[in-house]
Automatic annotation (TrEMBL):
<dbReference type="InterPro" id="IPR014039">
    <property type="entry name" value="Transl_elong_EFTs/EF1B_dimer"/>
</dbReference>
<comment type="function">
    <text>Associates with the EF-Tu.GDP complex and induces the exchange of GDP to GTP. It remains bound to the aminoacyl-tRNA.EF-Tu.GTP complex up to the GTP hydrolysis stage on the ribosome.</text>
</comment>
<comment type="similarity">
    <text>Belongs to the EF-Ts family.</text>
</comment>
<dbReference type="Pfam" id="PF00889">
    <property type="entry name" value="EF_TS"/>
</dbReference>
<protein>
    <recommendedName>
        <fullName>Elongation factor Ts</fullName>
    </recommendedName>
</protein>
<keyword id="KW-0963">Cytoplasm</keyword>
<dbReference type="InterPro" id="IPR036402">
    <property type="entry name" value="EF-Ts_dimer_sf"/>
</dbReference>
<dbReference type="InterPro" id="IPR001816">
    <property type="entry name" value="Transl_elong_EFTs/EF1B"/>
</dbReference>
<dbReference type="InterPro" id="IPR018101">
    <property type="entry name" value="Transl_elong_Ts_CS"/>
</dbReference>
<keyword id="KW-0648">Protein biosynthesis</keyword>
<feature type="domain" description="Translation elongation factor EFTs/EF1B dimerisation">
    <location>
        <begin position="68"/>
        <end position="259"/>
    </location>
</feature>
<keyword id="KW-0251">Elongation factor</keyword>
<dbReference type="GO" id="GO:0005737">
    <property type="term" value="C:cytoplasm"/>
</dbReference>
<feature type="region of interest" description="Involved in Mg(2+) ion dislocation from EF-Tu">
    <location>
        <begin position="75"/>
        <end position="78"/>
    </location>
</feature>
<dbReference type="GO" id="GO:0003746">
    <property type="term" value="F:translation elongation factor activity"/>
</dbReference>
<dbReference type="InterPro" id="IPR009060">
    <property type="entry name" value="UBA-like_sf"/>
</dbReference>
Length: 260
């Protein structure tokens, strides 16, 4: 077997990078079994210092509830493993059908045993990081978007159709807004942004400095508040224009693999 095929096989077995696999094969003179054992051992030792940063974001719903769940592992190789995928589905189903959003309460003895057995089988740490469970109410629409199981969003909008709500969920994935409305920014956040803008202004008259701060701050507030953002499907309009006049965004959630 040539070096390229060995590297590919080693990468498929460990989920690690090309150069890491190449160095391991060089170290063990092409012995793939020794290279696999070495990489898995070293990778596990290093990963104990960090929160697992791969995994799956799952969105699922019933007639009355919406769920978004993030379960983490250490490599993309394991995140694609059928046993890991089945575990994610099992956790999602139990949360949804028992109406339990508290992770500690959700994990009874059996589910925790399943997690520990999976850790042993796959040789990676596995954690349930985040769980959101939302109840549906009359006149509220829940939009959702899941991008390749790595980014997920839910948005609750009053008096809105599902297509528009889903488009706004996609917007949340693409732009990662801080708040819904400008008024939602805290004084501390605004003060921090002003300080940042000021730190990047050099040798200007005071009246010019004040004007720059005002313009840059307004730009920042618009770009980071959902309703004031340009719509990603049509940048000539803002999200506030895309919504009907009697619609109101109530709350949104955004998950990104490996992010707190």
């Amino acid at each position: 077997m040539n070096n390229i095929k060995l590297i590919k096989k080693l990468r498929n077995s460990t989920g690690l990078g090309i150069m890491t696999c190449k160095k391991a094969l060089t170290k063990y003179k092409g012995n793939i079994n020794l290279a696999i054992n070495y990489l898995l051992t070293i990778h596990r030792l290093k990963s104990k210092e960090n929160i697992p940063k791969e995994g799956i974001i799952k969105i699922k719903f019933s007639k009355t509830l919406f769920l978004m769940l993030e379960i983490n592992c250490e490599t993309d190789f394991v995140s694609n493993d059928i046993n890991f995928i089945r575990f994610v589905n099992k956790v999602a189903n139990k949360s949804l059908y028992t109406n339990q959003k508290n992770i500690k309460k959700l994990f009874d003895d059996k589910l925790e045993l399943d997690r520990k057995n999976l850790i042993t089988k796959l040789n990676e740490n596995i954690i349930v990081r985040k769980l959101i469970l939302i109840k549906k109410y009359i006149n509220n629409t829940i939009g959702y978007y899941n991008h390749k199981n790595r980014l997920g969003s839910l948005v609750i909008i009053k008096n809105c159709n599902l297509q528009i709500a889903n488009d706004i969920a996609m917007q949340i994935i693409a732009t990662n807004p801080n708040v819904i409305y400008i008024k939602d920014f805290t004084n501390e956040e605004i003060k921090k942004e002003k300080s940042y803008i000021l730190s990047n202004i050099k040798h200007k008259p005071l009246n010019i400095i004040n004007k720059i701060i005002k313009n840059k701050l307004q730009k920042y507030l618009n770009e980071n508040s959902l309703v004031n953002q340009s719509f990603i499907k049509d940048n000539k309009i803002k999200i506030s224009n895309y919504l009907s006049h009697n619609s109101k965004i109530i709350k949104f959630f955004r998950f990104e693999i490996g992010k707190l």
